[in-house]
Structure formats: C-alpha cells, structure tokens
Fold:
Amino acid sequence: MAAGTSDEPDPSEPVARECVEGYLYAGPPLRVLLFRRPPSRGSIWVPISGKVEPDDADLYAALRRELREETGLLEPMAVDSLDWQVRFRADNGEVWRLHAFAVRVPVGFVPRLSAEHVDSEWLPPEEAGPRLHYPDNRAALARLPRRIPNL
Structure:
C-alpha cells in the first residue's frame, strides 16, 4: 500500500480511506521481514498493508487483522506506532492516508503467505530499505531503528 499515482493530494482534500502498514521485525540483531508481491502486482517488495474496514475498531485492530490475513500471525509480541503517516492519491483518485507501525515478532517467525505475496525475506534494515519500491515505505522503515533502540 503506497502512493497510487504521482498526483500529490492537496492538503485541503478530505481523506476518503485510512490504511495501515506493518513493518515486522525481530532481533537482536535487528531484522525486518519484507514481502514480495506477485507479478500481477509488480513483483515489488513491501511491508504488510491494507485498508481499515468498517468492522475494525481502530488502526491497531485493522493492522492485527491484516497480519492474520497476510501472514497467519495471531498475536504479535508488540505493536508500536512509528508516528508516521502519509496522504496519497489512490488509483481510484481518492485521497487515502497510510499509518505505519512497528510489529515485533519472535526470532525465526515464518509467515504463512497469502495470495497477496509470493515470497518473504528477513533482512537487516540497511538492506531492506533499498529493496522497498515506494519512497514512503523507505521513509517509514527508516524510523524503525530509532523507535526500538534496544535491538
């Protein structure tokens, strides 16, 4: 989930949809789990992401649902806001807002991939960042090591 088009939304435009993304990490040493989209979706590397649905109580509930759907993870060890969000214009022309979270998982966690991904890989943050397709994903990931300094 990231900027759908290059058309930057005007700050006065209302947000039509809230979205979440989760950067799964474990350590020490700090490692980040990235996911590869299928060829039909560009074969790009991304974090877990999705839209907030009407039944989700809040952003955290939406993220936990996306984690279950996309990785099979039932209970993360910790979920912390990265205090980062970006507004972007989705492919349908609406303005959406994306909220980023750090998601701690056990060392050795092996995700159960959904149809949204064809591969996953654990990487150190300095290798994970360049692999991410969208600049806003790289910006959010850059906040992770500062948010979890003990790893």
Remarks:
- The radius of gyration is 15 Å.
